[in-house]
Predict the 3D structure of the following.
Amino acid sequence: MSDNFELLWNTVRERARTLINPISYSTFIEHLVPVDVVNKKLVLRAASELTARTIVKNHLEKLCEAASSAGIGLTGVVVVVEGSEEFSLYEEPDALEETSVQLDPRFTFESYVVGTSNKFVVAAAKSVAEAPGENFNPLYIYGGTGLGKTHLMQAIANDILQKKPSLKVIYTTSEKFLNEYVDSMYSKKGTARDSESRFRSRYRNVDVLLIDDIQFWANKYGVQEAFFHAFNELFSQHKQIVISSDCPAKDLTTLEERLRTRFEGGLIADIQPPDVETKIAILKRKALEKKNVVPDDVLAFLVKNSDNNVRTLEGRLNTVIFASKLHEEPISLKLAAAALQESINTDEQEEITPEAIVRATCAFFNITEADLLGKNKRQEIVRARQVCAYLMCDMLALPLVTVGQILRRDHTTVGYSRDKIAELMRVNDKIHKEVEDVRSAILKQ
């Protein structure tokens, strides 16, 4: 049995232990043996057809939930029995997907607002883009949520592709790299029998490799090993490596020491929270992109009681623009205050805490804190959880892992909730208003 399969199963098994009653777990689940991964599903061998039949009938859904929520690139499980026709593996493994994460053409150096808080890291990024592999290799960028790491990473990639089209550039996320690693390591039959070598080739034969949010590889030593070898190969050939994270390299204590020391061997550049002038400049650019003119006093008001998250700033601006269109009024200080339900002369707000966001969310949706943090899957409670996760990421700039610990959810679930609400707010006015109403309630506590 592969140690890699065992590592995956240990992670899934620990989650399954919390979802399945202890007697059933010890009788049927604990003794399953991991033997393969096919199409992102962990293949588990049962001792008999009777055991397999009981698991499939009563516990398979919970096992699949444990696998898909574990954050290790799995989507479910398959139960097999050696020599059984009923419980044999019928799936043919998929070929390794090799599509890159799509770059956003709007993310350029020109559209990135530079201020005192980020001018050092922007200069480093531009230097890397001008001479990949020659200056600051690797470049390690870190900063809190919503401060522009992804924008800057993609700006490097877009700039290189525009000015040096002959270079092979891959920008990807840590989650996608992990998923491809799982496919390549464990799908070794049928059409994907050479997927492991193709995975190695894909990430070792590039001129520039950019990987976003590397902190999500915490405690995932298989993927760390894969990246370590790719890193060494690229570095020895003077190929450029750019990495982003939400914390300094030295704080990634759950990453292997040999990876941290390699990160620290390059240039480590942080994105600091923007000052007031930079916040106003960001809002001016965002307003211009939306073809709106916002008076300076309104911009100052929007910035005054905001946190350091650029997404929060843009959300406040969007609320005011939406109110202007809805009421067919020009943007003014009075309109902005009404749209955000804030007093123009309000005193400084007390520091916003996760507890305040939980209280306000529960009050708005008329649910208890136990409902919010528990396992109830009623639609209105799930939506409340998603809104709460979004606001914690948006207003506090907390890492997904931290929000997950507060809400008793996996960081991948938190990331999905944040992105889901952000997308719904763009297309659904009712959801947009709900979120902003909760935000206003938080600010008034």
Observations:
- The longest strand covers residues 33-38.
- The beta strands are 33-38, 41-46, 76-81, 139-142, 169-173, 208-212, 240-245, 267-270.
- Residues 69 and 413 are 7 Å apart (CA to CA).
